[in-house]
Design brief:
CATH topology of the domain at 223-318: UDP-N-acetylmuramoyl-L-alanine:D-glutamate ligase
Distance between the termini: 29 Å
Oligomer: single chain
Radius of gyration: 19 Å
Bound molecules: adenosine-5'-triphosphate, magnesium ion
Number of helices: 10
Order of helices and strands: EEEHEHEEEHEHEHEHHEEEHHHE
Number of strands: 14
CATH architecture of the domain at 223-318: 3-Layer(aba) Sandwich
CATH superfamily of the domain at 223-318: Ribokinase
Strand order of the largest sheet: 5-4-1-8-9-10-11-12-13-14
Largest sheet: 10 strands, mixed
Length: 318
């Protein structure tokens, strides 16, 4: 079983608005409303790939009820802790004429320490029956930046792999709690290591550095694939996966689709190379669909040969 954690679950509204202009009134030509938050998106993509997954996290108010109803409608197993304040609604406006995307995310509920404790206990319970726990997305208000770190330390008592996809201070704290894998995108990684990347060498140095910060493995997504620092049968290795970028319909959630693909392959016992290839193919396919975490497994299979994976340099020790 795979568990996905979404502490700031949401209803995600994506509106397609041609010629979107600030200060004008518009009509949408296409609209999707789905349960969201990064962990939920990962769960949706894992479900599409036929993997056993339970989405957990926090939800509250009528919007929280709607999140659970939508997940249940999609046959995504879920087990959330109900909180006092109302879950948020996020709105993305996509302009098909310019390809530009504008996102407006609500602040969302404030979570109490007691609610987080309830969640911690539920997570440890669920993790006992799981192989992988994915902790993804931002933290809600009221929760300390070290909440993921705290959960990771609890999960160490359970025999389970942990994957963290978040940014800023929550990521900084989480890395020190030694998760199995972290998977930032480029801006998130730049913030974590403290400088901007100018070339391939900077990317390589950054994933190496993430290992020394505490993560056992690091996978950084790039708009053209990913770069990873992973143990292989030959010892710690740097791998680079690339795909020719495609004209996207929407890039929202491509990182979540990547992560789901990577996790699905890993769960199925695939090698690091195969898992990265599968992740990149899932990320690429998701850019062709409106709505986060939507992938078409047959299309993903078709894309696999288009992903090039190569070894970069042998890293000495971890
Ligand atoms: N235009 C594109 N064509 C093909 N693949 C893409 C494209 N854009 C992104 N991808 C793939 O999707 C994956 C994730 O990309 P990215 O680093 O942009 O994620 P992200 O910024 O974390 O996204 P999000 O957090 O919104 O889900 C990468 O592996 C990348 O190869
Ligand atoms: Mg991301």
């Amino acid at each position: 079983m795979i568990i996905t954690v979404t502490l700031n679950a949401a209803i995600d509204k994506t509106l397609s608005v041609p010629n979107f202009r600030l200060g004008r009134r518009h009509r949408t030509v296409e609209q999707t409303t789905m349960a969201g938050g990064k962990g939920v998106n990962v769960a949706r993509a894992l479900k599409a790939l036929g993997q056993p997954v339970i989405a957990t996290g926090l939800q509250g108010g009528p919007t929280g009820t709607r999140i659970v109803e939508q997940l249940t409608q999609e046959s995504i197993l879920n087990d959330f802790v109900r909180i006092g304040e109302e879950s948020r609604t996020n709105t993305a406006v996509l302009d098909p004429t310019s390809g530009e995307q504008t996102e407006i995310n609500e602040r969302g509920p404030t979570v109490t320490p007691q609610e987080l404790e309830l969640f911690r206990d539920k997570l440890v319970y669920l993790a006992r029956g799981a192989a992988i726990v994915v902790l993804a997305g931002s933290l809600p208000r009221g929760i300390d930046a070290d909440a993921y770190a705290m959960l990771l330390r609890e999960l160490k008592r359970v025999d389970v792999e942990t994957i963290v996809d978040t940014d800023g201070d929550p990521l900084r704290h989480a890395v020190r709690a030694e998760p199995t894998i972290i998977s930032p995108n480029v801006p998130e990684a730049e913030e974590l290591v403290g400088h901007e990347f100018n070339d391939e060498q900077d990317l390589v140095a950054a994933v190496r550095q993430m290992g020394s910060l505490g993560a056992k493995q690091a996978v950084m997504t790039t708009p053209d694939g990913c770069i990873a620092f992973v143990p292989t049968e030959q010892g710690p290795t740097l791998l680079r996966a690339k795909i020719e970028p495609r004209e996207p319909v929407a890039t929202v959630g491509s990182g979540d689709a990547f992560l789901a693909g990577f996790v699905a392959a890993r769960y199925g016992g695939a090698t690091a190379e195969e898992s990265l290839r599968f992740g990149v193919a899932c990320g690429a396919d998701s850019t062709q669909r409106l709505g986060a975490g939507l992938i078409e497994p047959r299309e993903v299979e078709r894309l696999l040969p288009e992903v090039e994976v190569e070894r970069v340099v042998e890293a000495a020790g971890v």
